[in-house]
Specification:
The protein is mainly β and 171 residues long. The protein has a single domain, classed as Metal Binding Protein, Guanine Nucleotide Exchange Factor, Chain A, CATH 2.170.150.40. The chain is 0% helix and 42% strand. It has no helices and 15 strands. The strands form 4 sheets. The chain has a 7-stranded antiparallel sheet with strand order 2-5-6-10-9-8-7, with no helix packed on it. A 4-stranded antiparallel sheet has the order 4-3-11-12, with no helix packed on it. A two-stranded parallel ribbon has the order 1-15. The radius of gyration is 16 Å and the shape is globular. 33% of the residues are buried.
């Protein structure tokens, strides 16, 4: 007897031309290289800029962008307390970002020793867009994923609905 796949917890938005649905992203997540121009602003200045970001794409989540640690301005990133475990990527460490007297605590995370299949995340940092002044992809300002745990970057390129808001934890 064949089992039916579980029903989606919500109705996905149909993507338009040039858009992606997060409901078409895989689980386990996929790491994908890009060449978009990524800019992160914090404390009134550009703290990171690169054309060498990777996206992690996971069902129901907006993409998370990981930037090379070397893309961050010197002295902006500092180790923070705590860790968490992703069932796919491994144990994440947290980072504070600081510009002068302005500090965003645990505003970024990284995988110091990513698990098999996610090695490309080594040496890269993901920031929570909601903790920054702004994050941009190819000049478009990113909206942060709702909730306090996930670090997804929402642009006009992706449609949801997105996991993260109250009531979506089980998605």
């Amino acid at each position: 007897m064949r089992r039916r796949p579980p029903a989606l917890p919500t109705t996905p938005i149909v993507p338009g031309p040039g858009q992606e649905s997060v409901w078409d992203y895989p689980r386990p997540p996929r790491v994908e290289r890009g060449d978009e121009h990524v800019v992160v602003r914090f404390g009134g200045q550009v703290v990171a800029e690169t054309h060498d970001a990777v996206r992690v794409l996971e069902t129901s989540h907006p993409p998370v962008y990981y930037l090379p640690r070397t893309a961050f301005a010197e002295g902006v990133v500092a180790e923070a307390s705590g860790s968490s475990v992703c069932e796919f990527k491994g144990t994440a460490g947290y980072l504070d970002l600081q510009v002068g007297d302005v500090v965003a605590r645990r505003a970024a995370y990284y995988y110091p020793d990513p698990w098999s299949g996610y090695e490309e995340l080594g040496g890269r940092v993901a920031v929570y867009p909601g903790a920054m002044d702004s994050c941009e992809i190819d000049g478009e300002r990113v909206l942060p994923q709702e909730g306090g745990f996930y670090g997804g970057w929402i642009t006009s390129r992706v449609v949801g609905p997105f996991k993260g808001a109250p009531g979506t934890l089980g998605w």
